[in-house]
Request: fold
Amino acid sequence: MLELGAGSGQFAVAAAKRGYKVTVIELVPKAINLMEKLASEHGVEQNLHIIYGDFYKVDIAGQFDVVCYWDGFGIGSNEDQQRLLNRVSQWLKSDGMALIDIYTPWYWAKVAGEEMEIGHIARRYDFDPVGCKMIDTWWQKGEPESKVTQYLRCYSPADLNLLMKESDLQLDRIKAGGEMNYESREFISETSLERAMSYLAILVKS
Reply:
């Protein structure tokens, strides 16, 4: 199994504990340190291979049964996503599958303007209808100059199919993600695709 952008390694370590051989690519040294510590705490260092680098650039020998990318697809341009999908195809065995979280445009358009507070941190969601991007802004309460904003391109399944038109990947099936009730601050894990904030795209080679 190959995980892209593994962060501090919660999924990778959990998969390794289940007996999977997991290779991860991570760009942030601090995240790698946390991942190594977590792997050591759970005794799975032998099942976890960590590659420090940019998954747009690193070279990996061999192919994988599963390639997964959680909560990050959509950073950059359409061309960036196509380049990444081509790399995923190269890393994937002919009978393998890719699991990719993808944000939905309808959900993030609906919740534009929502604000919340998490401890000392304030957060606001907005939506760019022209670029079809979710806009996520964080700042320290009382310090608006500390704002940090990230943009994530949202894709409907139809958009995703267009993105993969020149690829040998195809959309095999979809699993709807959850939605947030901002009035009750309750996360609803089971919902329909038209209400979901994201979906899991399961891709196979054509």
